[in-house]
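From the pipeline queue, job 12 of 40. The input is one protein chain; the requested action is below.

Action: predict structure.
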Amino acid sequence: MSKAASQSSRPEILAFGPSKVTVFDFDERIVSAVKRFAEKERIDGVLDAVWCNVLDPFPESGRYDCF
């Protein structure tokens, strides 16, 4: 879902969309895959991934819109 949202925000696809998508995941493989995808598609300024421990509080709570 995050990949679709970040790619659709390209001007040639949609004129609107999120300015940045950050994926928080507990699986380092997913985080690495998202980062590789973003670099390959040259959207690493729009799509990012961060590893997080689900037992810890959410980082920077209130800064993000979440779904």
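Job complete. Residues 2-51 form one domain.
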